[in-house]
What we know:
- The protein is α/β, with parallel strands linked by helices.
- The protein has 14 helices and 17 strands.
- The protein has 3 domains: 3-263, Rossmann fold (3-Layer(aba) Sandwich); 313-413, Four Helix Bundle (Hemerythrin (Met), subunit A); 427-473.
- It starts with a strand and ends with a strand.
- Adenosine monophosphate (AMP) binds at residues 28, 30-31, 39-40, 42-43, 232-233, 235-236, 265-266, 272-274.
- Its main location: cytoplasm.
Amino acid sequence: MLTLYNFLTRKKEIFKPIYRNKVGLYTCGPTVYNYAHIGNLRTYIFEDILRRTLEYAGYKVKHVMNITDVDDKIIKGANAENKNIYDFSESYKKAFFNDIKKLHILPAWKYPDATKHIKEMITLIQKLLKSRFAYKVGGSVYFDISKFKSYGNLSRLKKRELKIGARVDTDEYAKNTGEDFVLWKAVRAGEPSWPARFAGEARPLWGRPGWHIECSAMSMKYFGKSFDIHAGAIDLLFPHHENEIAQSEGATGKKFVKYFLEGEHLLVNGKRMAKSAGNFFTLRDLEKKGFNPLAFRYFTLSAHYRSQLNFTLESLKAAQNSLERLWEFVLNLKATPLSLKPGFKSPKKPGFFPSGAVLIKVREAFQSALFDDLNTPKALAVLWNLINDYNKNPKKFDARAILGLLYDFDKVLGLGLRAVRPVRPPKEVLSLLKKREIARKAGNFAIADEIRRKIKQLGWQVKDTPSRPELIHA
Ligand code: AMP
Ligand code: ZN
């Protein structure tokens, strides 16, 4: 039984998809006007865990993530660089796909670009005009929030906080009052525009879509009028997701989405990481500092997605250390010979892994942590308890069964456990190690220590064991 916290009801609910074993999942993707910061990436990792958990629970998931390639920020950036919006956003789009690959975020079924769905947006706006949820002013089209009776239900904006008749033109507004928001913006100098043929107009209205309409148009294009899960970060609750509900339900009269999931922010010194605040790191920044991207993935899994998470380089280092310990453990297991012990018989049912009563309980604990609204910190604790128990008494366990169980967990965690291979030291390090041995045997300890330092600079540590010195990747 999978439970998820639904922002529509503000409760944990048992997940029941619209169609028996299929799930439609739509997540708000990047606005490609800059490199994603690791706050954005935290949200995409949470959504990846959601998708993987649904698959782990046996659902067939269709995931759609939009790419916002036209909005206020993109136009501003493109104009500043004297480029059109397509040339301007191309490299950021590429960087986004590189980042998510490095973070083991599984590819979505579709990544629709906003600029390739202008037609669908115009059709949707036309429907809203017809049903009088929308009205035209000076070549622009607005959504009339006073007509949509449940406006504000998702974000709990009360009726008295709605400014009836007031209008807002900008794509982003984090105000706590609701106003009529823009669906179609009349063309302005220096902005890209498309012709919209709305009924009752002799000529097309040249302009561009407001930001919110794209997610309604694209999600309904790929999933139909209603679908299962919509996710993003908490700042999208209002106005973006609120407006999406109004636009979609206003046009179709049907319930738009069953479950809204909103992830909490990544913070720096207690403040939201944001481009505008200038307190951000990109994945590239972390890599330049010597971090593995998966250390960041591990770091985000150590907190629940609905808790704020404060980012520091020290805590990232701690996450990297834990991940390396996990990889080392897996490597050791891989090197352990197969030894089926009594009680570790082959699985009773095909596809049911692992064998052995103890491990079945461990798998249940891991699964119930994840199925409890994606409790990844608890799931990681289950994994580490298993490792600690094994380390205390390896003879009690079958190494291969544990390895199989860790691979099974990694279907959700995505920490690359199957792919870990022993890293071979480079020739330079090996030859330094030989020189150090010669120096040590000759009693030249100062030289031996100097060489040890050089080896360390190359990222390796020398550990002297009774039989021979060993190299450890630092
Ligand atoms: P954007 O590229 O600005 O459209 O943002 C992409 C996604 O990242 C959206 O779901 C945002 O809500 C989310 N986001 C922005 N800042 C943060 C943050 N500090 N922590 C987590 N998610 C964030
Ligand atoms: Zn969206």
